[in-house]
Automatic annotation (TrEMBL):
Domain of life according to the entry: Eukaryota
InterPro entries (UniProt xref): TXNDC17-like, TXNDC17_dom
Residue ranges constituting the Thioredoxin domain according to the UniProt record: 15-124
Naturally occurring in which organism (per UniProt): Paramecium sonneborni
Protein's recorded name: Thioredoxin domain-containing protein
UniProt record similarity statement: Belongs to the thioredoxin family.
Entry's Gene Ontology molecular function annotations: protein-disulfide reductase [NAD(P)H] activity
GO cellular component: cytosol
Amino acid sequence: MEQVIQVTTSDYSEKVNKEGKAALIFVGDVLAETGQSWCSDTVEAEPTIKNYAIPQLQQKGYTVYWCWAGDKETWKDQNNPARVSQWIQIKSIPTLLLVHDNKEAIRFEEEQLFTENALKQFLEQ
């Protein structure tokens, strides 16, 4: 994932450039035992995100942030910074949030990220 900035839910708000266009991709952390995320939806969406969405977004001038949501316990905590943020309020993972000049432009969640279909309508305009 060249040129993708990796952040966590606890530090994304300080690291995300809120000017211009940003794509924030929230996913579950990877388990050392399996090499895959604990979140089955993240596992299913990851190929579409990495092989389709990220290249398309970068081509369109987005700065892409890969936001680790934490292990299952951290993510499920109702006080998780991404959940309680007034700015983004992430309710599920994976989530792809496109931001234009500090305002949400569009949000794709869970099964919308499993295939390219939902993304194509927006990204190939």
